[in-house]
Amino acid sequence: MTCFRSAVVGFLASCWATDGWAVRSTGCQDIDGAAFTNKSDVYYQQINNARYVWSAGETIRATWTNPTNPPDTARLLIGSSAASGTPASTTDFDNAVLGAGGTVVLEHTLTQARTYVGSELDVQNGDVVLACKVLQTIAFNQPADQKVQDGNTNLVASSNSGLAVTFASTTPGVCSMAGATMTPVATGTCMVSVSQAGNGDYYPAISVSRTFTITNADSDGDGTDDGPDNCPLIANADQLDTDSDGTGDACDSDDDDDGDNDGSDNCPLIANADQLDTDSDGTGDACDSSVFGADQHALPVPTVPTSWLILGAVLLALQGGFRRQLNR
Questions:
Q1: Cis ω on the peptide bond leading into residue 232 (within 30° of 0)?
Q2: Does domain 138-215 have CATH number 2.60.40.1080?
Q3: Mean pLDDT of the chain
Q4: Is the bond leading into 268 cis (omega within 30 degrees of zero)?
Q5: Which residue spans of the chain are classified as CATH 2.60.40.1080?
Q6: Gap between the terminal Cα atoms of the chain
Q7: For 129-157, what is each residue's pLDDT tens digit?
Q8: pLDDT tens-digit readout, 201-220
Q9: Is 200 left (phi over 0), alpha (psi -120 to 50) or beta?
Q10: What architecture is the 9-134 domain classified under in CATH?
């Protein structure tokens, strides 16, 4: 940049033309030098035709670091170029103190077309990056709460730049992302962020995050989620599973797991593959409290007339007397 170091303003127009300034401000040129001004890294753009104009809506951003003589004052100037040899018309849009080891970002969004930009330190040198692009923002619709059983859902987000956005799950154990498609993985809080990295015309967008809940369905409304519910389509709050086969009694066709369906099983809650029913009362012996029938709880006890009992007692007494006579 030998040409730029010239103190003669009239030479500057030819220098900038030689350096090939970009058509849009996205091609801001990094010009380091101007030590003769006792300032640092001054950026100018001398405009001779309409090709070299910063457009309304673009944002000029200067990032200063590492001043050689801190503290110093960083300054961003924006305005209109003038004829060769004539100072440009500028306004100090931003000023900030730059300390040792610190960073200062000066930023201004244009409300009208401009043809001059300057970025400088008041005292000596420092490092500066000048960017001239358009800011962009992301719109991300709030996703509704989901159920694990719902499966894939397409999320909706976009940038006002029209550039494609990127989705990412910050809770992959709860939900995963493939493009804009969200897949529930487990119950919990899902967080998805959307970003846009920018390009030659646009600054990176500030990422936007949304959170929503992933739950299990409870199709039968019995208070137990479908996942662990042993009868997900028939309400059974007690989750009773007599045969411990993983299917609740409310929807198990063979509750005792003996091979006979409940409808025809004469003992549906106690396994009895033989279906034995001694008294033929329709209740299998395995669960019948009266195996011999309602009138036959035990073997019949014979009835004895009272006279027979008296006669027996007399006979026993006589027998005792005979024995005593014989023993004399």
A1: no
A2: yes
A3: 76
A4: no
A5: 138-215
A6: 159
A7: 778 889 999 999 999 999 888 899 999 99
A8: 899 999 999 999 998 877 77
A9: alpha
A10: Sandwich (2.60)
